[in-house]
Amino acid sequence: MHAQHSEKTEEIVLIPTPTDDPDDPLNWSFKRKLLSMFCLVLYNMAVGVPSAAIYSVLVPIIENSSLTLSNLNDGTGVMFLFFGWGCLVWQPMAQQYGKRPVYIFSVFVTLFMMVWAPYTTSSGEWIASKLLQGFFGAPIESLGEISIADIWFEHERGRWMSVYAVSLIVSNQIAPLVAGFISDGQGWKWVCFWCAIFDGVAVIVLFFFMEETNYTRPHIAADDEIEEIPEEKQIGIVTVEQTDSNPEPLKYHIDMAKPMKTYTQKLQLLDKPRPFVLHKLMWRSLTMFRFPVVCWSGFYYGLGVVWFNILNATGSSIFSSPPYNFSSSMVGVTYIAPILATVAFSFISGNLGDRLRLNAARKKNGVSEPEDRLWLNTIYLILGPGCFILWGVGAWKGIHWIGLVFAMGILGGAGLMGAHCSINYVLESYCALGSCAMVPVIIIRNTMSFAVNWGITPWVENTGIRNTFIAACFISLAGISTYLPMIYYGKRTRVATKDAYWSYVQEALDLGLPH
Fold first, then answer.
1. How far is CA 286 from the centre of its chain?
2. Distance, CA of 77 to CA of 91 (rounded, Å)
3. Tens digit of pLDDT for each residue in 380-397?
4. CA angle 38, 41, 47 (to 5 degrees)
5. Separation of first and last alpha carbons in the chain
6. CB 252 within 8 A of CB 18
7. Measured between alpha carbons, how far is 411 from 298 in angstroms, rounded to an integer?
8. Which residue ranges does UniProt annotate as crossing the membrane (predicted)?
9. Residue 379 predicted with pLDDT over 60
10. d(Cα 134, Cα 84) in Å, to the nearest integer?
11. How far is it, in rounded angstroms, from Cα 178 to Cα 55?
12. Is the distance from CB of 149 to CB of 515 less than 8 angstroms?
C-alpha cells in the first residue's frame, strides 16, 4: 500500500493520509495545532464550568431561594439530556457551516443563560434555563473529539484526546471548588455572574484565535495502486509496516508554494459553501445507532459520567451535614481530589493507550485494531466499583472525610479512563464518519445521565445512602466488565456491518463533506 510515513520514523504510517496543502489541519505547524488545542480547552471550560458550578452550593441555593434539592437535580438532569440530544442539531450544523461558528455561538448563548439563572423564581423557570443551557452547550459533548481528529494523526490522538478529556472533566470538577469560595464571599448568585464574565472573555478569545478545522480530503483515485486488504481487516487500522514487500514509502511533503489563508480569512465565521444536506446529516447520525460499537461506546462513556454525577448530587448534602459540617468553600475543596486523579489517569490512559496500539501492531503483522486499546479498562474495573462502597457506606458510618475524598478522586480519574477508551474506540473504528458516530454516543451517555440525575434524590430518600451505593457498586461492576466481551466480539460486529459503513462513507465523499 502506498502510504505516507511519519518524519520521525518511517515505521509509522500516517493515518489519515495528509495532502500537500499547507492549510490541511494535519499539516499545520505544531504551534498552530497547540493554539487550536488551547482554544478547544478554553471552549470546554467556558461551557463546562457553568454546567457544574452549583454542585458545591446546592445547600445555599435551597436556603436562599424557593428551589428544592429535587428541583435542582431535575434541572441538572434536563440539562444533561439536552447536552446529548442537542448534538443531533449542532453536529450536522458544524459539518454544514463550520465548527468555528458553532463553538463561538455556543459560548455566547451560555453567557446569557448564566445571567438569567440567578433570577429564576420557580422550578419551571429553573428547568427551562437548564434546558436551554444544555441545548446550546451541546457541542461540548461531541464536537471536540472530531476537532482533535481533524488536526492529529491517529498514532498521536491518544495523548491529545486525554488533554481534551481532562479539560472536559476538570471543568466540571474545578467549578465546584471555585464556586464554594465565591458563594461564601459574595453569595450563590455571583457564582453564575462570574461564569458569565468568564464566558464573555472566552467569546472574544475564540473569535480572534480559533481556526476552522473542517477539511474535505480528496477521494483516492480509482487507478491509484492500493494493495488489497483482506476482508476481515477492512475496518482494522494499519499503523506499522513490517513486511519486506512494501514499496518505497512516500515522503511526507507539504507544498509551500500553495497560498495559505490570511489572518483575515481565518476570522471568517462560515466555512466554505457546501451543498445543503443538513437533513441528511441529521438522519445519518440517527442511522449510526445500527452499529453495535457505537451503542456500546455510548453506554460505556455514560457509566463514568453517571457514577460521578451521583457523587455530585449527594456530595454537598453529605459534607454539609454532621459529622462533617463543611462550609460551601470546604465542600468545593474536596473536588481537588478528582482534579488531581483526573490529571494522573489521563497521563496513563493517553500514553499507555497509544503504546498498546503500536505494540499490538508490531505483534500482528503491522495491523493494530481499535479493540487493542480496551485493555486499559482493566484498571477501571479494579479501582472503580469498590469506591462506591467507600463513599456510600463510609458516609453512612461517618468515617473520616479523607476516605470519602479518596473515593471521589478514584471515581473521577477512573471514569475518565473509561471515557477516553470509549471515545477513541468509536473514532478509530469509524474514523471516516466520526462526526456522525459521536452523536449517538453522546445521546446514549447523556440520556443515562439524565435518568440518574432525575432519579437520584428519590433513590437515596427511599433506600438510604448505604443501600444506594452498595447497589451502585454491583451495577457498575457489571457495566464496566462489558469491555471484556467487546475485546473479543467487537471486531466481529465491525466486519458484519462493514458494507453499511462503507456505503455511508461513499455517500459522504460524493457530497464533499468533511468527517
1. 19
2. 21
3. 899 889 999 999 999 999
4. 140
5. 23
6. yes
7. 18
8. 34-58, 70-90, 102-119, 131-153, 160-182, 188-209, 289-310, 330-353, 374-393, 399-418, 430-448, 468-489
9. yes
10. 8
11. 11
12. yes
What span, in angstroms and rounded, lies between the C-alpha atoms of 15 and 315? 44
Q: Which of 64, 326, 323 is nearest to 176 (CA)?
A: 326
Q: What are the residues facing 238 on neighbouring strands?
A: 367
CA dist., res. 132 & res. 467, Å (int):
34
- Taking residue 503's Cβ as centre, other Cβ atoms within 10 Å add up to 9
Share of the chain above pLDDT 70, in %: 88
**DSSP state string for 369-415:** -GGGGGGGHHHHHHHHHHHHHHHHHHHHHT--HHHHHHHHHHHHHHH
Side chain identity, residue 289: F
Where does the pLDDT of residue 236 fall: very low under 50, low under 70, confident under 90, or very high at 90 and above?
very low
pLDDT at 244 > cutoff 50: no
- Residue identified by cell 474495573 is 381
**CB within 8 Å of 444: residues ≥ 6 apart:** 84, 295, 298, 299, 301, 302
CA atoms within 13 A on the CB side of 61: 31
- Per DSSP, the residues of 448-493 read HHHHHHHHHHHHHHHHHHHHHHHHHHHHHHHHHTTHHHHHHHHHHH
Identity of the amino acid at 138? A
Which pLDDT band holds residue 513 (cuts at 50, 70, 90)?
low
Residues facing residue 240 across a β-bridge:
12
- The Cα-based distances of 237 to 358, 365, 369, 373, 427 in angstroms read 11, 12, 5, 12, 11
Are the C-beta atoms of residues 291 and 430 closer than 8 Å to each other? yes
Q: Which three cell numbers stand for residue 235?
A: 475496518
267: number of Cβ within 10 Å:
15
d(CA 448, CA 62): 26
Is residue 427 predicted with pLDDT exceeding 70? yes
Class of domain 29-215+277-511: mainly alpha
Q: Which residues is 368 bridged to in the sheet?
A: 237
Please provide residue 13's backbone torsions phi and psi, each rounded to the nearest 5 degrees. Answer: -85, 135
Judge contact between 292 and 493, C-beta under 8 A. Answer: yes
b/e map of 139-165 (b: 16 or more CB within 10 Å)? bbbbbbbbbbbbbbbbbbbbbbbbbbb
Residue 14 near residue 5, CB atoms below 8 Å: yes
* C-alpha 24, offset from chain centre: 24
Chain segment 93-121, per-residue pLDDT in tens:
998 899 999 999 999 999 999 999 999 88
Contact 100, 211 (CB under 8 A): yes
